[in-house]
């Protein structure tokens, strides 16, 4: 009988280990995201800074605003940079409500007296420049996709809509519109949980990691378990510094 108990215990532990290391779940563009309802209208601000052995260097304040209009969700982002060369970058993106399927993406950067406009339309088989957007520097862009891609510049909110839990892994096709890297699959893993400081006190968080397809590098996210709002992100840089994004409000 003791031997049977040991065998049963071993089988249980093995099953738990298999579940904890299940294959990544591929998230297909157009499918309903199980926790999309956690995305709420409103604004959140983050401080971005570089951390090193010598201290901290503030980069910018990053504001993200969500608005719903019928069957569409709109995400607006704004970076206000600090330092000797202040700049402003604004993004305005639209998505299908419930699925996060990207529709349009506009990026406007103002720096050193120069304004750059970039606009993109997402389709199942390609991402192309918006021909009717005034002063669009990317109007001639066409990037064919083997499989539909999500908008990489909305990854924070996208991950918020996934069913985060112990052992969960998601495989997602992302594309940074206009970037040098082609659309590709990326894996995000829930590697544990931890309580960290938040704007109003300690927050119990899921820890999510990815290497962005660069083996050896690690980006780490903390998502609040209740709202799945991102509270913090830390990404190791090649020069030894760490890029930190932390929730202000």
From TrEMBL:
Residues spanning the signal sequence: 1-22
UniProt xrefs under InterPro entries: DUF3108
Gene3D superfamilies: 2.40.360.20
Alphabetical keyword list: Signal
Protein name: DUF3108 domain-containing protein
Originating species: Pseudoduganella lutea
